[in-house]
Amino acid sequence: MTQNIQYETLLKNRGYRIGVWGTGYIGFSSMLFFARKGIASIGYDTIPDKIERIAGGDFFYRELSDWLSFPIRPILETGLIQGTNDHTRLLEEDVIVHLIAIPTEKDGEPYFDILANVIDSICEMDKNRDIKPLVVIESTLSPRTSEEFVLPRFRENGFEPGADFLYGVAPRRDWFVAGGRNLEELDRVYGGYDEASTQAIGDVLGIVCTRLHAASNHQVSEMVKSFENAYRHMEITLANQLSLAYPNENVREVLKLVGTKWNIGTFYPGFGTGGYCIPVSSKYVIQGAEKPGELGILLSTLATDGAINNIIGESIVARSFKKVGVLGLSYKGNLKVYILSPTIPFVRELQKAGVEVRVHDPYFSPDEIQTILGAETFDYPEDLGDFDAVVVVVDHDLYKTGDIKESIREGTFILDNTGIWENVFGGDDTVDYHLCGDSGWLGDMPDKR
Question: CA-CA distance, 272 to 295, in Å (whole number)?
Fold first, then answer.
């Protein structure tokens, strides 16, 4: 096999392509950013609708338009992005780089069955090719996953890292709800199985990424994402623990002032951390630890975070409200992702108690909300006056607009998770407005701990 391959040069000469396994937010955005630099890619996905839309040149996640910070349509029209439901097309000779961007969690737990299928699929390729494939995992992994799962799986299929393929881990860190914090501009960590792998990954990622940090090896780089998210998970959850410990104090105001210290972040009490990364990353860290019992703080974090949404639900039930309107199903504002959404356990707590609860989210159809939550929806803001209580879980931009004050009737209880309505109802004594974490936000909750 040819040694010292210049993957960057080969890709830029347009004779070769990148294969992307998974065309969700991570995979499809990788394809867009590389296409913007003139690099061709082909994405594999098991969902036919995604591939049909890519083939039609009109597939993109519209909620990511601000985050991407560049026009999408001209890139799709270049023809540099293709999609397929046939994984063998990613095994062709012209695909020399494989970016793995598939889910590595299921039902809130680490889950590597899909990763196993991708590895097996890659190993169907002919090893006798002039260019070693470069395999880079962009998904979040538990520490030690490469050594205990990924590389053994390749070896079982007859592929030896370093000899038959180059390998590394470069977890994505994107903050999809904020423009300017994208693949091109955020700091990116990567590490390879050997020196050649690390060099090749840096060259390929450097086509797009402007701020790269090489780890000493792939084991270090695969730890970074789960460790950094575990830190954030603990800080967010500590805010909730403080609010539970001081239920009659305005912990939110205290923490706002705490955050004025130069080396402390600002975290507020509220609904639990949702989404793919933060809560699952703590479980990744525990799963990969040699001595998980030493991670008592992290174990406590998981316990509190797993309970807080039910506690908030219990507080609403205890106030004896009959009709509750919930704004937001997504786990984060301006995204269409309900995986591990804090809204789900909260709504189920209300439903269990027989409360009539309806949910609105501009990114989900009424049928989708019914399927996910078993709840009806309502029109925003017109129907806000139907409820005894309105709970704002997610800060979608839509919820900053409309005749909010005119739509909510006098005396309504409002619980605002993100502070999105503070400028509308703060100081207004015609409603019972609470920010998560302020004095009495959970009412007179019995101490069950």
Answer: 20
As a whole number of angstroms, the distance between CA 1 and CA 128 comes to 8
d(CA 197, CA 208): 18
Examine the domain organization and report whether 210 and 99 are in the same domain: yes
Residue 225 backbone dihedrals phi, psi, to 5 degrees: -65, -45
CATH of the domain at 329: 3.40.50.720
Number of domains the chain is built from: 2
State how far the Cα of 380 lies from the Cα of 2, in Å rounded to an integer: 61
Considering the domain architecture, whether residues 264 and 185 belong to the same structural domain is answered as: no
Structure tokens that stand for 361 in this block: 């989210």
pLDDT for 108 equals: 86
Cα torsion angle, 57, 58, 63, 67, sign:
positive
- Residue 108 maps to a domain: yes
Residue 108 sits in the same domain as residue 150: yes
SS (H, E, C) 104-119: CEECCEECCHHHHHHH
Q: Which two tokens stand for residue 159?
A: 């592929």
Give a yes or no: residue 225 inside a domain: no
Q: Quick one: average pLDDT of 171-189?
A: 83
For the stretch 182-197, pLDDT in tens is 888 889 999 999 999 9
Residue 309 lies in a domain: yes
- The answer to the question of residue 223 being in a domain is no
pLDDT in tens, 410-448: 999 999 999 999 999 999 999 999 999 999 999 986 565
Q: What is the model's pTM?
A: 0.90
Instruction: Please state, rounded to an integer, the average pLDDT across all residues of the chain.
Output: 92
Same domain, 313 and 201: no
**CA pair distance 374, 393, nearest whole angstrom:** 18
Quote the radius of gyration of the chain (alpha carbons, Å): 24
Host domain of residue 357? 230-435
Give one word for 440, left, alpha or beta, with left for phi > 0 and alpha for psi -120 to 50.
left
